[in-house]
Structures are given as C-alpha cells and as structure tokens.
Design brief:
The structure is a single chain. By secondary structure, the chain is α/β, with parallel strands linked by helices. Helix content is about 35%, strand content about 20%. Strand 1, helix 3 and strand 2 form a beta-alpha-beta unit. Helix 5 crosses helix 8. The longest helix is centred in the C-terminal third of the chain and has 20 residues. The chain starts with 7 loop residues before the first helix and ends with a strand.
Length: about 250
C-alpha cells in the first residue's frame, strides 16, 4: 500500500487555492498555551516545524516565545511565507526555511522541540511517520504532534461534504491507543495522547459548497457550540483535535 496519501501537486494546488492565509497571529493561537508550558518547563530554545507551510507555528514561536525556529516542508511558496512574516512584524530570515523531502533529508542539527500540525494523518503507516520526526530531536527533547479528529462530528461533516479532502486522511491514525502504542514501540517516554479543543466543524472547500450544504454545516456548528457551552467537555465525539506529546529519552 502506498504510504503517502498526498503528493507535491496536491499541496501546491491546495495552498494556491486557499483564501485568508495571511493574518496576524494572536497570543492565544490554538495550542499556544500548551506550547508555552512546554517551553517554560523544558527551557526550549530551538524548534522545527515539519510539514508546516506556510509556517504559522514557526512564526508564532519566534514572535511570542523568541525561539530560534525552522520550517521544513516539501512545498514552500516563499512569497506567501514573506507576506505572513510581514503581517506578524517579522522579516525574511527571521525563521529558517528548508524546502526538502522529510524522508530523504538528513538534518544538520537537532532541536529541543520538534512539531507537526496535521501531518501524520496523511500517511498510512503511523509509527513510520512518527519515527521520521525523531531524527530532528535532541535527547531529552519534546515531540509535539497534533492531528484532526475525524472520528467525530467534524469527521462526519468532512466525509459527507468534502469527501475528496476526507479521503486524503488516514482515519485509522486518529486513535489514541494506536498513537500511544506507536510512541511506546519507538522507545519514547512521558507519552501523552488526548482529545483537545472545544467543539467545532469546518470545511476546507466551504466557498465551493451549495447554500443548503453551508446551512446544514452551520446548523451543526450552532447546536454543537450551544451543547458544549452548557457541558464543556473534550471527547472523541466532539473535540476537533488530537494532541500527542512525548519525550525523547536521554
């Protein structure tokens, strides 16, 4: 079975079709509180974001945590990165950029923290793609991975209203036990895997949807928001994200 569910042409088309990519990142950007605690607790100075174009977290961590950050991706559009830097009061060169294939690239240095956001679910072999992160990580360093939770109401929305995007994801990877077992098999420690975030749903192709589809998704979003405001829980059915946080042994 082919391991990679996407290719370079998919990502080029994906990013070039997206609207609203360039915006000012706020201090409370999603996962920012978790990352701030890791940085404070571990004394993190350097970080690399894998598969993270256009570099939201590389820029966020540079801007608000003053880390030395690096962005590595298979596809980089320099003009978009520079626009995102500028709107966040940074300049070209403030983050390091590596355009390379994650699987063939040999890092020249290792980092205190390795991050990926929405990367591992695009591959069929979950343990394999997690392992590819480790060549960048210092002993004692932190690996921080997030992925969408499509075994949820949001997943139902994706499957029914954006099947093409849904099929680019390995739904089996969105399993806490699989993620924990994969990390354990790789010899990692301090393993945490959990659902994260208040209820939401989204569509990558929202602008292409018919009015009825938009109305249905909006209704689901409204009902879910009301319910979780009354009962604010993070769960498999409702949370939009999964977080994995582990430590590389010394």
């Amino acid at each position: 079975m082919e391991n990679n569910l996407t290719d370079r042409s998919f990502w080029k088309s994906f990013w070039e079709s997206r609207k609203g990519l360039i915006f000012k990142l706020k201090p409370n950007y999603v996962f920012g509180d978790i990352l701030a605690k890791i940085i404070a607790d571990k004394g993190v100075k350097t970080a690399i974001e894998l598969g993270g174009f256009p570099g939201y977290y590389s820029i966020y961590l540079k801007k608000y945590q003053h880390l030395k950050t690096t962005l590595l991706d298979y596809f980089i559009h320099p003009e978009l990165v520079n626009k995102l830097l500028a709107v966040n009061d940074l300049k070209p060169g403030d983050i390091n950029i590596i355009e390379a294939d994650l699987f063939t690239y040999e890092p020249a240095e290792k980092y205190d923290m390795v991050l990926s956001f929405g990367l591992i679910e695009h591959f069929n072999d979950t343990k394999f793609i997690i392992n590819e992160h480790l060549k960048f990580l210092k002993p004692g360093g932190t690996l921080f991975i997030t992925l969408p939770n499509f075994k949820s109401v949001n997943g139902w929305v994706q499957k029914n209203f954006d099947k093409e995007n849904y099929d680019k994801h390995n739904i089996n990877s969105m399993d806490l036990n699989l993620l924990r077992d994969s990390c354990k098999a790789l010899g990692l420690k301090d393993i945490e895997a959990y659902y994260h975030g208040k209820f939401t749903v989204w569509l990558e192709n929202k602008s292409e949807q018919k009015a009825l589809s938009k109305a249905i998704v909006k209704a689901i979003w409204t009902v879910g928001k009301v319910f979780t405001k009354i009962i604010p829980i993070e769960s498999k059915a409702l949370s939009p994200y999964i977080v994995v946080k582990v430590t590389m042994p010394l």
